[in-house]
């Protein structure tokens, strides 16, 4: 049996966050954090600059080509959102050398982006002030599975097989077989990365959102988004998804099952574009798995 801390310590020995992210985080945490210094840090990486400008001019933000320089982008987005986006754009590089034998990485990143888009669409419907953060949370929501399949592959695969055959929720099987579940592992990794506490709390509570404290609504959005991703994987209808969602999730979001079809349509419509934005090194190969 393994603890989340043990597994995360193994993955941390193989990965590290990029220096640009670490420096942006320092600016966010500093009382003297500067928009101009963050813009300078981002501008030093031409690829990151291009992707940030593409994103701020995308449908998610709605500026449609009006923002043409990093300083303006950082001024509009603010330090917190730029921090979150640099973290999201770092994921592919962070895990580039990790390819678990029993996990299809193309499908994993495709489903992570789909979860991100669904989370964002759900947050928008709830009227959340920072709906864009829900996108990044969704992108990170399943990262615990990547850790599990890299550090305890046989146990992770066994848990997935048992859950698939018996219909038991995967996170419960993981706790029994591995000793911890993907949500706990993901939250532990967020803590180790020292990202804002909201990420760990929402990701850690996604399987039981009412335990998410002040971030329970974020956790509920991740819960619903993960069900939408699962439905996409196995070909379920929106009505079938709705029937599986706990009433607590609807209460926290102040939504109902009528929203599922629209959320799925919006997420699937934007999937290819955001795959190429966040995972530019292999967009065509990933897209062929759609």
UniProtKB/TrEMBL annotation:
<dbReference type="InterPro" id="IPR013976">
    <property type="entry name" value="HDOD"/>
</dbReference>
<keyword id="KW-0418">Kinase</keyword>
<protein>
    <submittedName>
        <fullName>Histidine kinase</fullName>
    </submittedName>
</protein>
<keyword id="KW-0808">Transferase</keyword>
<dbReference type="Pfam" id="PF08668">
    <property type="entry name" value="HDOD"/>
</dbReference>
<feature type="domain" description="HDOD">
    <location>
        <begin position="14"/>
        <end position="209"/>
    </location>
</feature>
<dbReference type="GO" id="GO:0016301">
    <property type="term" value="F:kinase activity"/>
</dbReference>
<dbReference type="InterPro" id="IPR052340">
    <property type="entry name" value="RNase_Y/CdgJ"/>
</dbReference>
